[in-house]
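In response to a reviewer's request, we include the raw inputs and outputs for one of the modeled complexes. The two entities were modeled together in a single run.
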Amino acid sequence: MAKASIEARGDLRLTRLTKTYGDFTAVDDLSLTIPKGSFFALLGPSGCGKTTTLRMIAGLEEPTAGSIHLGETDITTTKPYQRPINTVFQNYALFPHLTIFENIAFGLRRRGQKDVKEAVDKVLNLVELPHLAQRKPTQLSGGQQQRIALARAIVNRPALLLLDEPLGALDLKLRRQMQIELKWIQKEVGLTFVHVTHDQEEAMTMADTIAVMNEGQIEQMGSPAELYDNPETAYVANFLGQSNLIKGTISGNDGDSHIVDLYGQKISLPKNRSHAVDNSTYAGIRPEKFRISLLDTPVKGNVLSGGHIEDVSYIGVSTQYQVEMPWGQELMVFEQNDDGVAPFNKGDAVNISWEPAFTFALRGDEDATAGSEVEPEVLDEE
Amino acid sequence: MGKIRTPYLLLLPGFAFLFTFFILPIINLAQTSTQTKIAGGDTGQYEQTLRFANYVDAFVDNKEQFGRSFLYAIIATVLALAIAYPLAYAIAFKSGKYKNVLLVLVVAPFFTSFLLRTIAWKQILGEEGFLVPTLRTLGIISENTTLTSTSFAVVMGMTYNFLPFMTLPLYASIDRIDPRTLEASGDLYANGYTTFRKVTLPLSMPGVVAGTLLTFIPAAGDYVNAAILGNPNTKMLGNVIESRYFKIVDYPTAAALSFTLMAAILILVTLYIRKAGTEELV
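The model returned the following structure tokens for the whole complex.
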């Protein structure tokens, strides 16, 4: 049994996985399949259950209910050291008493592998730190420790590599660089990566598939583009990037489109992007999809008129406008600065227009602010 | 100027204290160790003759006690380590909110006198205690075996008395271990035993070294346990020195023995630290 589990390969399958601590449900009836070879991100705010899920996959927490399969092998109750799974821990958890070489060799030695030196040298070259082999972890910078933690895990060629906020402790610039490197390394070694993060940009940069988690459940799962362009819930719409959600009523149909009444103004949106369950809905448009025009300029597509510019912030690549609409809502608009000047001023009376295809529709009974004011993540020190 | 002088001024009280109460007595002791009896003088009257053979005589006459001192000290240290390690580990990792309570309990024996606690062991191991009858009923010891006034009692007393000195440094060292390194070890295919051997133990070595030294050094020079719990055949070097000083009034031999013991401990400890390689540790 122990031997069989360490050899297990294939897709990772979580079935009705649940973890409760007393009255608190951290992970709630979660089912999920992660295909072999993919880069999968579990994205969500602090306390959404993503780290607990990861720890159950690693074997560091025992599920209250449900099962975990790797290929055909049930590993739900298998000990961590009998799973072909390695983890890159949030704080790296390198062994302070061992050299970098011995840190990386640790897993290989435990499995009695031959040619340890060759394998370690190879992975040190992969992370571009071969000159640090004889140093101790405390002599390394944060970015170097991060790469060693990664090397220590991938050298074992696990069926599954788990990354628990691996870039959380790095500064922004280094984080961007490591995101690209991680993605490259994943392609290079061809392992399945499961990445836990609260940083939506990080998830979108690296992952093929993202599962957005909220309160122990998966809110929506899909490719970064699917999640961004066609969010199914207000939570996803707000947590992944920013959204303008405008309350409205579906008043009719026109072929493949719904006609939606937004405070007396009619717009259309594709039916296949509507997640409304009845006539009541929120029409959602990303800020960069909007175009602003002065009242006398002719425009195509959906138009909302009667706005005036409330605030202008110039941020280099784009200019962000707050546009107050007749019904009192302020809409956010990002205009590319491709012509070099900010053409609109505070107080200008404007129309807002956009391509109908960029519109999505959510259920009308949702909380339009869900996911938008998630508390900033504090790296958990438990 | 003032900035350079401040650290030295701060060191001054410590230096003055150590000079008066450690350096001077040591010099005095060294002088005494090579003295000989004044011919025809009273008991306790000695003169300096630089007789270094005092050391040889003192050692040859007390070889047995020497060996016993180190043997008992080593056994007590090993026993204390065996008891204290799991205790310290449990307090550091498993005690949750009771951590501070347990730490207070570890040092609680210090609230009573060392002497009193040692005498209490006489009661525990005595015929009227609960231990001896229980062991006899269970057939572990025979009807006519006693536990008081035995080497067993001396070693037990030493183990008990020095246990907190073992537990506290061990705890301090184990408590500093990041539990996530233990999780990482499990994640990297090490089972519980291997994790202990390859991660927990090496990371707690500073505590093991400090604890064993704090136990072994005073245990090797101890005389209270042997005096209260032992018999004439369990005498340790401390007992010999004590009787040479206060009963026989043979100051040179007592001083020579003290120095020999000190040197022996110093050599053993140096070898031990080299072997344990603490300089390798973080």
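As requested, we also summarize the result in words. Chain B touches chain A through 20 residues (CB under 8 Å). The longest helix of chain B spans residues 2-33.
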